[in-house]
Design brief:
MFS; disordered N terminus; globular; 467 residues; Growth Hormone, Chain: A; mainly alpha
């Protein structure tokens, strides 16, 4: 539901020995020694860098999407924004996972941020001089999304490189809390900035935070492991001698191997397909919450005591904040109690299934909410439910996959989920223009429940297939 990945060149022998690699006694890991004092510093630098990067990106994303929603107010406009803003990440992540396994992951985290900052400056200039239009915005969304297809697999693959294996669930939960905190701060800042300064100035916030984020990640020094260095050297040597066509064929082979590997593992198959189904059935309709807010609650004020929601930007910000506060709360609960209660992969699978079911129920709640206050409560609970399944899903993919396959697994997950959401939008967005939009949320939520049943059934299987 919320995506990422990695990848390293594999020889033919690796694909022939997948079952052997899957066994715990044969699995080699390059995770840092839990007793190593510097691992916390490396994790802190990585998470701090991502926090700044995500903050700026979120502020700009909210500002752009609100501009589209308020200017056009149609399902088709949101559909096109989703296709240009999400589909490229799905395509690029097909290769992004393989790149994360083959090349320097730290570089793959920093470089997209710098490129995205450059195109954001160009968009800012176009708004300042009056050249901006939907076409220009869609081009920038395309490039930003493409950068995410490279960066997100690299981030998720880099986390196990700097984190002891027994701390992965905690670090993933903290990462989820940081994401949620950014989503809380970002819409609040965006709502203030939209009423104070022009959009071209808001866009420059992303440039500043990207530079800061890249600086933090650049400070990370990961000790080279002998086997990892050998893999790196082999990859560099092969890259220098291969043509572009051969490189593409090698990537496709990596994808095939990753697909076979993941689909042969019941838990990996469960979280990847479960994630994709949720993105198709539930996340796609949730991308229409901006339309739901502007259509159903236009002209309706809500005084919460500490704040009075009157303007369109106030309500759009409240919509984002409700979901983000829920994800923050859910992530915090998973961080505190998850490591103690979800020690086995089977328990993590069951929690993922429960979280998916709750997402379905709460999305239905968004559609049947009788008033704005009830809607915001359902919105908050949706965030809690999402956090309850995202952390366990990431941990399963990191802990259950061999180190040489982790990138391919995350790349596959990112690809499936990223394609599923715009495909869902192709179904739900046009419907939102011909039927009551609340019905779209009810249908999406109900259709999510079978995905929870599927993941729950797989949790009864053995962790690893028999040899």
């Amino acid at each position: 539901m919320i995506k990422e990945s990695k990848n390293t060149g594999m020889t033919t022998n690796t694909s022939m020995n997948i079952n052997a690699c899957e066994r715990p006694e044969n699995r080699t890991t390059v995770a840092p020694d839990p007793n190593e004092k510097d691992w916390m510093r490396r994790v802190a630098l990585l998470l701090a860098g991502q926090a700044f990067s995500l903050l700026g990106s979120s502020i700009v994303q909210y500002a752009i999407w609100w501009w589209i929603a308020l200017e056009w107010k149609t399902g088709w406009a949101m559909l096109l924004a989703t296709l240009f803003g999400v589909m490229p990440q799905g395509v690029v992540s097909i290769f992004g996972g393989s790149m994360a396994d083959r090349y320097n992951r730290k570089t793959l985290i920093m470089l997209p941020d710098l490129i995205i900052a450059a195109v954001t400056i160009a968009l800012s200039v176009s708004f300042a001089v009056g050249w901006a239009n939907l076409t220009v915005i869609f081009v920038v969304l395309f490039i930003r999304s493409s950068g995410g297809g490279v960066q997100m697999p690299a981030v998720q693959s880099f986390i196990p490189d700097v984190t002891p294996s027994d701390k992965l669930l905690r670090v993933n939960s903290v990462y989820g809390v940081i994401n949620s905190a950014n989503m809380i701060v970002a819409p609040a800042i965006a709502a203030v900035l939209v009423n104070l300064i022009p959009l071209w100035a808001i866009l420059l916030v992303d440039v500043t935070t990207a530079v800061i984020g890249v600086g933090f990640v650049a400070l990370i020094r990961v000790p080279e492991k002998a086997r990892k260095q050998a893999v790196s050297d082999r990859s560099k040597e092969s890259v220098g001698s291969r043509t572009f066509a051969v490189s593409i064929r090698g990537t496709l082979v990596d994808l095939r191997d990753g697909f076979v590997y993941a689909m042969g593992h019941p838990y990996l198959r469960g979280v990847i397909l479960g994630d994709a189904l949720v993105c198709f059935m539930a996340v796609a309709p949730m991308n229409l919450t901006l339309l739901l807010m502007t259509r159903e609650y236009e002209g309706i004020d809500l005084n919460l005591g500490f704040v009075n929601l009157t303007t369109a930007s106030d309500k759009l910000a409240a919509n984002e904040l409700g979901l983000s506060f829920g994800m923050l709360l859910g992530g915090a609960l998973m961080s505190v109690f998850g490591a103690k209660l979800l020690r086995s992969s089977r328990a993590q699978m069951r929690m993922a299934a429960f979280g998916i079911a709750m997402v379905g129920v709460t999305v239905v709640g968004l559609g049947v909410a009788p008033n704005l206050l009830a809607y915001l409560v359902a919105d908050l609970l949706t965030g809690v439910a999402a956090a309850a399944c995202v952390g366990p899903m990431r941990t399963i993919m990191q802990s259950e996959s061999d180190e040489l396959m982790t990138g391919r697994v995350f790349g596959l997950d990112t690809t499936f989920a990223t394609f599923a959401m715009p495909l869902g939008m192709l179904v739900f967005a046009p419907l939102a223009d011909v039927i009551p939009i609340s019905w779209v949320f009810i249908a999406g939520g109900l259709l999510t429940l079978p995905a929870a049943w599927y993941v729950g059934m797989l949790s009864r299987r053995e962790t690893r297939p028999a040899a």
